[in-house]
Amino acid sequence: MLKDLKKKKKKKSKDEDEGAAADGEFDPSALKKKKKSKKPKGETVDDFEAKLKAAGEGAEDAAAPEAEPVQEGDMWKGTGIWNHDNTTPINYNLLLNRFFTLLHSQHPDLATGSKSYKIPPPQCLREGNKKTIFANIAEISKRMKRNDEHVQQFLFSELGTSGSVDGSRRLVIKGRFQQKQIENVLRRYIVEYVTCKTCRSPDTELSKGENRLYFVTCNSCGSRRSVQAIKTGFSAQIGKRKRQG
To answer: Which positions fall inside the Translation initiation factor IF2/IF5 domain (predicted)?
Structure first.
């Protein structure tokens, strides 16, 4: 019995080996799977993109123009490329740099894009107890490009007083006034008779038109507007009146 069992086991093992061999002989897909080594798709895409990138960079490098040589010389001293006898052509960037350098040095207001408008503060002095001297009214009027008499009339109207001009072109105002009061009056004058209402530029001109009207013309934007005439306030007569008759 034992011998028969051993023989049967040997036969089964042989049959299994033959079946496995048979399976190996007639299953070509299994052989293909073993021989084939799969590569992820991502690697091929990355390789392709890398090649495209390398090709693009190579084309850009080939198409890039060569850098222009640096032109030496001092613009202010007139040496090198800036010598008036030099026949070497100057490139565009250097000329543009020279233009803005000269513009900034000669006209800083134009170079910065904003025009500075500075007026010195009024210099007020006391003369006794009843008079105030406006010392630099001529300089301020010149900065504003306005007539001295027009500025004086506005001051007298706003302060409700009168005055005169001495030999040094100083305005002698009747009454005691502080510097802040004069500054406030000048500020109102600039807003009304100097500053352009359209572009806020102080570069304007005041001219007299028809029907005794004054017009402010802007030199920056070209706008034109009419301004009110200066109204003379009531001034009380001080002193004794002469008798009539």
So the answer is: 114-224
The 10s digit of each residue's pLDDT in 46-74 is 665 565 556 555 544 555 555 555 566 67
> Exposed, middle or buried, 215 (CB in 10 Å: 0-12/13-18/19+)?
middle
Domain boundaries in the chain?
124-227
Task: Report d(CA 20, CA 14) in Å as an integer.
Answer: 10
Sheet arrangement for strand 214-218: 204-208, 214-218, 224-227
CA distance 141 to 118: 12
Q: DSSP strand E in 8-139: where?
A: 124-127, 131-134
**CATH architecture, domain 124-227:** 2-Layer Sandwich (3.30)
Total Cβ atoms within 10 A of residue 151: 22
Number of other CB atoms surrounding residue 171 within 10 Å: 24
30-48: pLDDT as tens digits? 545 555 555 555 445 566 5
